[in-house]
DNA sequence: TTGTAGGCGTTATCAT
DNA sequence: ATGATAACGCCTACAA
């Protein structure tokens, strides 16, 4: 196509990249390009520039709305830098995650954000060794020299426990995820610590463990209800909470009158449920956004020192844990109508400002992905 | 590193790809590779092979569980061929989608699956012109020479209407998505046709339109309830249906006793709701799987004629539309306990068999993404 | 301003 | 079986 324009290949390249060129050359190149339908080859460009314009995200379960929220936030940042997001779901398996991390050496992406629910030395080794930047969302050993955005789910659990106790609940059940996961362990510790802080002994019959899925939550809650008699249920995430809600309603318990219910992650699911679920926000969108920003900064400058950021949890109180009005009639209406969403957790994420990809693709505006204009 | 091994660069390449080589050479190369920590560069390989090993998927809303299901199915197939999936969310915007399709000329992926809710001539032009294979999930003009997997949501709507009428419902409300979308238009037409088929006149007050989201469904249902008096509600997807459920319960209507509820897409959400929602399965997982298979076949052989596949809808009947037992007491228990999930829509998707990527990456097993071992 | 030439890291072809 | 060499498509000194 350079030939077609009657100019050198170099001139053509320059024109296409908007670098110099006489008016005449520019015209000829443009014409020839249009004529031939020339489009630059992304691969060749990557080989030359040593960048792919891709950023990867590895999460355990793409169906969990908490990761959807995180993904959206990440994608917004990534897209605003002219890059694209590649999503992996690992099923929470260590082998799958470490394989992914090692594959980074192939340089098929410019960076990776990973949110493991189990963290092993293999993870850390792979990350430290990796030639491409990695940011971890989640708890990490204190001395790990790795960019990291975390929250404190122990405190989050405490918020929920305090709230339930303040509302007069006495027997708080706890439906957790696997204890051999980082969040599972943290939430277990948080739950016990929170009770201890109020001088309340832990009743093991009020604690149940499954995985972080809906079905497990439903089943675990069913077991718990069968053997204990909680007046509140705290669940380690919203999927579990929705499962627990199903179990409660199936058993004929009223929520929140008989049993108050609180989830964690404060996802869309919490607001979709009926009654709407109180939920501990762990700032997943914020963590995602910050992680993406950290990653882009590191891509721009690999020599930055390792950074560690914290996002504070907060509690969104909704109908599922608000004491019912003592209305005696009308047994049909399941829940008191409270002004939903007191919104301690509603934040407007400001438009992020991050280092853009050095050579933004010329020509038409890059299509966003994952989030842009989400509402049809 | 070839130098380090004391062999030519070509020999090294051969050994690394497992092609021939004397025992001695192999040993030397392996040793040197380990020593230097050599990892093949994915970009350079792509430049040479003219393949990236990436397949893209473009959907409107990554938070809609129907796309999550589709994505999982696609990802399983894609991963089994040694490729990776790149997910884009377009927000259902035509501009965003066509931009994506045009970008295919950059060859940053080996193929794309797109599931547009609005299809324009621009889409078709871009697809036909595209140098990389594209498969469309969704309705398409009959003469479009494009690989295509579709379902018949008109028939799907009819299944639901027949079911509700058979259950003795008289006034079926319909909460639809935008009429200027392909699925919105099809479902509207299907609803009217189904009623007509039973000789029932259409009452426009029983039809409400929003978008395909939860909030819109809730609001639209609220409006509909305020002005009409349905004994059943059919919703254009499960997100809308869950929104409608929220509206119904908020208004104090019992489901299904006062109002039966049926969604569409038969997503996880339908089973998470309480009561569980009947839902029209449009075979999203199957469509996804077939689309991925078609795409891989076409990547393997670009000269295939355009293919068109159909996936039949079916109805999953659950508690939300099953006539309540005439129990007169106990007004608290919201729903009859029916053996949930008669599962006309439960299918075991057999492990797909598809053309694998010609040169599978040597070395460690490729990590799957998006779906593998989803349950932690 | 323009053209020539080298290289990004691989694989493939062709002699040897 | 091995080694030199030419692509793959692009960018970028460097020279003209």
What does this structure look like?
The structure is a homodimer of 376-residue chains. Chain A contains 13 helices and twelve strands. With 376 residues, the first copy, chain A, is an alpha/beta fold. Chain A folds into three domains: 2-30 and 38-48, no CATH class; 50-152 and 290-311, Response regulator (Rossmann fold); 153-284 and 313-370, Response regulator (Rossmann fold). In chain A, the strands form two sheets. In chain A, strands 2-1-3-4-5-11 form a six-stranded parallel β-sheet, sandwiched between helices. In chain A, helix 5 (65-80) packs parallel to helix 13 (284-300). At the A-B interface, helix 4, helix 5, strand 2, helix 6 and helix 11 of A face helix 4, helix 5, strand 2, helix 6 and helix 11 of B. Chain B binds a DNA duplex (16 and 16 nucleotides) through helix 2 and helix 4.
Number of helices of chain A: 13
The first-to-last residue Cα distance of chain A is 40 Å
Main sheet: strands, sense, barrel of chain A: 6 strands, parallel
Beta-strand level of the residues of chain A, as a percent range?
5-15%
User: What low-confidence regions of chain A span 5 or more consecutive residues with pLDDT below 50?
Assistant: 327-353, 359-364
The first-level CATH class name of the largest domain in chain A: Alpha Beta
What is the average per-residue confidence, as pLDDT of chain A, rounded to a whole number? 89
Oligomeric nature of the chains? homodimer
- What's the CATH topology name of the largest domain in chain A? Rossmann fold
Order of helices and strands of chain A: HHHHEHEHEHEEHEHEHEHEHEHEE
Shape of chain A: elongated
Number of strands of chain A: 12
Number of domains of chain A: 3
How are the strands of the biggest sheet of chain A laid out side by side? 2-1-3-4-5-11
Specify the helix fraction band of chain A.
25-40%
What is the radius of gyration of chain A computed over CA atoms, rounded to a whole number of angstroms?
25 Å
Largest interface: A-B, 84 and 83 residues
């Amino acid at each position: 196509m350079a030939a077609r324009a009657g100019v050198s290949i170099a001139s053509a390249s320059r024109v296409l990249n908007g670098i110099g060129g006489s008016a005449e050359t520019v015209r000829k190149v443009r014409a020839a390009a249009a004529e031939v339908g020339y489009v630059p080859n992304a691969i060749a460009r990557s080989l030359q520039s040593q960048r792919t314009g891709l950023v990867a995200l590895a999460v355990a379960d793409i169906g969990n709305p908490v990761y959807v929220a995180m993904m959206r936030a990440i994608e917004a940042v990534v897209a605003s830098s002219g890059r694209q997001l590649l999503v992996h779901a690992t099923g929470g398996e260590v082998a799958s995650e470490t394989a992914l991390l090692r594959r980074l050496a192939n340089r098929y992406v410019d960076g990776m954000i990973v949110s493991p629910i189990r963290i092993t030395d293999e993870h850390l080794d792979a990350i430290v060794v990796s030639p491409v930047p990695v940011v971890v969302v989640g708890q990490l050993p204190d001395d790990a020299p790795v960019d990291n955005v975390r929250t404190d789910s122990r405190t989050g659990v405490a918020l929920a426990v305090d709230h339930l106790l303040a509302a007069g609940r006495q027997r708080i059940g706890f439906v957790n995820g696997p204890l051999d996961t980082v969040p599972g362990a943290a939430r277990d510790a948080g739950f016990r610590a929170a009770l201890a802080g109020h001088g309340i002994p832990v009743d093991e019959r009020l604690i149940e463990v499954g995985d972080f899925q809906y079905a497990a939550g439903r089943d675990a809650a069913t077991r718990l209800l069968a053997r204990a008699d909680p007046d509140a249920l705290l669940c380690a995430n919203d999927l579990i909470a929705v499962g627990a809600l199903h179990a409660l309603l199936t058993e004929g318990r009223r929520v929140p009158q008989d049993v108050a219910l609180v989830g964690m992650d404060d996802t869309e699911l919490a607001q979709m449920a009926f009654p709407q679920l109180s939920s501990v926000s762990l700032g997943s969108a914020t963590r995602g956004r910050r992680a993406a920003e950290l990653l882009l900064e590191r891509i721009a400058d690999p020599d930055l020192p390792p950074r560690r950021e914290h996002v504070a949890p907060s509690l969104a109180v909704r109908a599922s844990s608000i004491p019912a009005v003592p209305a005696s009639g009308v047994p049909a209406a399941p829940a008191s109508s409270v002004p939903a969403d007191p919104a301690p957790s509603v934040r407007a994420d400001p438009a992020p400002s991050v280092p853009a990809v050095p050579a933004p693709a010329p020509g038409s505006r890059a299509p966003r992905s994952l989030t842009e204009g989400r509402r049809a």
